[in-house]
Amino acid sequence: MAEDEHRDKRRQRVFKGATILTGMTRSEVTCTVRNMHDGGAELKVSIDARVPDEFLLYVPTDGIAYKAVVRWRREDRIGIMFTGTEPKPPWHYG
């Protein structure tokens, strides 16, 4: 069954650099946003990246930090749902 069949909204294909920010350890994971809509996105990450179930996704081209929750994981892809936005943390260099 295709994952598109589970979506309420059609995602727009994009190619944006982004950073997964985890507040507890202030760690950062570089990723690429492959497609997105108002409610979520699909990210491409390194196959060995450690990504928590909840994090902040900072997308510099949007100038927005999205609060995100992981909905699914497949190899180097992660599907996320946006739960809100907040200012970029001051400790992030970008």
Strand content: over 45%
- Total domain count: 1
Largest sheet: 6 strands, antiparallel, barrel
* Helix content, binned percent: under 10%
By secondary-structure content and strand pairing, the structural class works out as mainly beta
What integer value in Å does the Rg equal? 13 Å
How far apart are the first and last residues' alpha carbons, in Å? Answer: 38 Å
Number of helices, where a helix is a run of at least 4 consecutive DSSP H or I residues: 0
Given as residue ranges, the uncertain stretches (5+ residues, pLDDT < 50) are 1-5
The overall strand count is: 6
CATH class: Mainly Beta
Walk across the major sheet and give the strand order.
Answer: 1-2-3-6-5-4
- Mean pLDDT, rounded to whole units? 86
Shape: globular
Proper CATH architecture: Beta Barrel
Reported by name, the CATH topology is Thrombin, subunit H
Order of helices and strands: EEEEEE
Protein topology:
Elements: E1 12-22, E2 27-37, E3 40-44, E4 54-59, E5 64-74, E6 77-86
Antiparallel strand pairs: 1-2, 1-4, 2-3, 3-6, 4-5, 5-6
